[in-house]
Amino acid sequence: xxxxxxxxxxxLIRRYQRFLADVRLPNGEVITAHTPNxxxxxxxxxxxxxxxxxxxGNPARNYPWSWEISETSExxxxxINTLLSNHLVREGIDFGVITELAGYERIRSEVRYGxxxxxxxxxxxxxxxxxxxxEVKNVTAAENGxxxxxxxxxxxxxxxxxxxMEMVRQGNRAVLFFCVQRSDVRxxxxxxxxxxxxxxxxxxxxxxxxxxxxxQANISLREIRLVSPLRNEVQCSEIKGNP
Length: 243
Hints:
Layout: E1 7-16, E2 20-24, E3 30-34, E4 50-55, E5 65-71, E6 77-79, H1 85-94, E7 106-113, E8 118-125, E9 132-139, E10 141-143, E11 146-149, H2 155-169, E12 173-180, E13 187-190, H3 196-207, E14 211-219, E15 224-229, E16 231-232
Parallel strand pairs: 9-12, 11-13, 12-14, 13-16
Antiparallel strand pairs: 1-2, 1-4, 2-3, 4-5, 5-6, 7-8, 8-9, 10-11, 14-15
């Protein structure tokens, strides 16, 4: 996916009120940009770090600039815009990159489903009714070459896992898809050190037939694309009991 307008480099001054960030441009101007990320942005929002923002060109927005990329202390570019993850996965399916999700006749987005009144990110459909429910999670946090999710405790994430398990029980295929917007990792793991309950429900979901698919993105200042699968380091045999 190519960015529709050029990115502008700056230095992060601070992130605040969850969705705002002050960024100093090379000419000294300070821009307040929208932060399209609901997580803690662990390791990606350090004051003084290099960031890249984009002007949406929409004068109706209160904050027309959006924060798109961060650079970690190790010099790794990370795509922090969680709103892009669904588009990246859809593009990966359409272009045949994500082979595990090939062969469906239709793809629909944001379809209501489940007993907990959720919306599935992508619903892949076949004419014979063998559907696949795909919940996409954007992953930005990593340590020692392993990406992890979530980067903050998430009740919503646990709800999505329960909904996916229910779809499997109803005879559907269900997938939790980790969209890893950084290129320096070899595997993905649930963040037990941040949300141990999520880790438990994650393993329960795997044991009950929910598939885990993880892909890594290449990040440049022109585009972000999913390019290759990543190893998932958790096996359902790791379940040891509810924390």
